[in-house]
C-alpha cells in the first residue's frame, strides 16, 4: 500500500454521494422544501393583511361623499361598489358580506348624509367591529371644527412588533421540514442500502461503519440545514418573517435546527431497523411524524388544545423545537434563554439513540 | 502455470448457521494469477466460502490466509488488496456510473479516473447513466469495474454471468481473461460448466459444504473418461449455442 488508508476521505466521499443522491430524490425535495413552502405561501397570504371587513355598497347609493372616503381610508374595510342587489342579499345571508351600506344625501340640509347599514346575523362579530368603526368615524366626521364639551380621549398606542401569521407558521413549518427529512429520509436510505446489499458491498471495502453513518449524517444534516436556510430566507424577504436580531437570529435558528435534525434522524434509524419491508416504512414513520405534526404547535398554538391533550403535546420533541424557534426568531431570545427546550430535545436524542443502537440492523 | 505460489489458502474451513452446517471442513489453495472456479449446486456453500475469504462473514473454525494475511486479524489489510463482486448487489441510489466510481475510489482511498475505469469494461458511453438503467451484462461489467478500482491482487466474482444472454456471457469471459492476463488472480463461482471449462485454470466442485473434486477441467474430464464414462449421444462438432452465436452474431447486444 503506497499510502495509509484515510477514513476522513472515505467519510467525505460517502457524504458527497449521499448529498447528490438526496438532491435527486423527489421525496426529499418535496418534504424538505415544497410542502413547508406551500404552507408558508398559503398562510403567508391568509395572514398578510390582518382583519378585513367585507362591505357591499348598495346600488343607488351616493358615491361622492366624505363617509365613503373615510371608510376607504380605514384600511379595515373592503368595499365592493358595483354588485347587484340580488347578489348582495345572497352573500349577506351566507356571511360573505359582513354588511351592506347605503349612503343618501339629505335633501333637507343637515345632517348632510344618512348612512344606512344593514348587518347580517351570519357575521355578527365582524358586524360589531364594523359598528364601532362606523361610530368612531361618525364621531370624527361630526366633530370637525367643534370643541369637545365633556372630554376628549387622547389615546396613544405604543408601536409594538407586528406579530404576523408567518411568525407563527414559519417556525412550525421549519420543524415539520426537519422532522420529515430526519425520519423519512434516514429510514428510507438505510433500509434501501441494507436491502439492496449496498452496505454489504461497502463492507467489502476498508470503510468503517462509523464512516458510513457519519457520511450519511453529514449529507442529510447539510441538506436539511440548506432547506431551513432557504425557508427562512424566503419567509423573511417574501412574507416579512421577523428575524429580530438579523443574522444572529438566523444563526441561532440554524443551531436549533441542527439539534432538531439530529434528534429526528434518531427516529429514522429506529424506523429503518424496525421496518420489515419498504412498504412498512411510511406507516411506521407516520406514526412518529403525524402526531407531532398535529400536536406540536405546527399550525396552532398548543394552548388552543383541550387541557387533556396538552400534556401529550408537551411530551413531544417537536413542540420544544417549535417553541424555541419562535422564541429565538420573534422574541429575540438567545440560545441560553431556550436552554430548557434544548435540554428536553437532548434528552429525547439520548433516549432515541439508545433505542436506535438496539434496533438498527446492518444486514 | 509455471509459478504456483498459493495466494489464498483455506484450511479446514467450517461455517455453521445455527443447526445448518453450510461449510464442513473445506481445504483448498488458489494460485497466484490463475482463474479458479468454485462450482456446485445452489446451497452447496460456494457463496458462504467466498464471503468468508472476502472477510464479509465470520467463520466457525478453520484458517484462511489471503496473500499471507489472516482473515481473523488482518481483515482491513485484506480488503485493500481484493476486489469483490457480490451476487445481486445494488449500488447507491440516484447516482450515475461516474459518481458511483468516485464514491468507491473514496471508499478505497485511491484516486482513479472514472472514465478510464469505465473504458476497461467498455462502458464509456454509459458514463451518465444510472446503474438501474443498465442491461444485465452492463450491470455485471460495471460491478467488475468497481472491483478493479483499488488495483486488487485478487478479484472475487460471484455468479457474474447468471441470467446473461450468450453474447454478454462471452463478452464477460473475454473481460475476465483480460483481468487475469493483467496479473490479477480471479476466483469465480458459476453454474455453467461450459463457462468453467473455457475460462478456469482449475476448478473445485463443492457439494454440501465439502470439496468433492479439485483439478484442471481437462484432468477432471480425462479422469471421468478413464473411469469408463461415455456420453449417451454422439457429440457433434458444434452445439446449439454455437448455432445461436453463428446466427445472431458475436457483437454485444446492449
Automatic annotation (TrEMBL), chain A:
InterPro entries: ABC-2_transporter, ABC2_TM, ABC2_TM_bact-type, ABC_2_transport. PANTHER family: DOXORUBICIN RESISTANCE ABC TRANSPORTER PERMEASE PROTEIN DRRC-RELATED (PTHR43027:SF1). It is a multi-pass membrane protein. Pfam families: ABC2_membrane_3 (PF12698). GO terms for cellular component: ATP-binding cassette (ABC) transporter complex. The chain crosses the membrane at residues 28-47, 174-193, 217-239, 251-275, 287-309, 342-360. Keywords: Cell membrane, Membrane, Transmembrane, Transmembrane helix, Transport. Belongs to the ABC-2 integral membrane protein family. Residues 134-363 form the ABC transmembrane type-2 domain. It is found in: Cell membrane; Membrane. It comes from Pedobacter xixiisoli. This is Transport permease protein. GO terms for molecular function: ABC-type transporter activity.
From TrEMBL, chain B:
It comes from Pedobacter xixiisoli. It comes from the Bacteria. Residues 8-233 form the ABC transporter domain. PROSITE patterns: ABC_TRANSPORTER_1, ABC_TRANSPORTER_2. Transmembrane segments: none annotated. The keyword Cell membrane applies. Pfam families: ABC_tran. This is ABC-2 type transport system ATP-binding protein. CDD domains: ABC_DR_subfamily_A. The keyword Cell membrane applies. GO terms for molecular function: ATP binding; ATP hydrolysis activity. InterPro entries: AAA+_ATPase, ABC_transporter-like_ATP-bd, ABC_transporter-like_CS, ABC_transporter_ATP-binding, P-loop_NTPase. GO terms for cellular component: plasma membrane. Keywords: ATP-binding, Cell membrane, Membrane, Nodulation, Nucleotide-binding, Translocase, Transport. It is found in: Cell membrane. SUPFAM superfamilies: P-loop containing nucleoside triphosphate hydrolases.
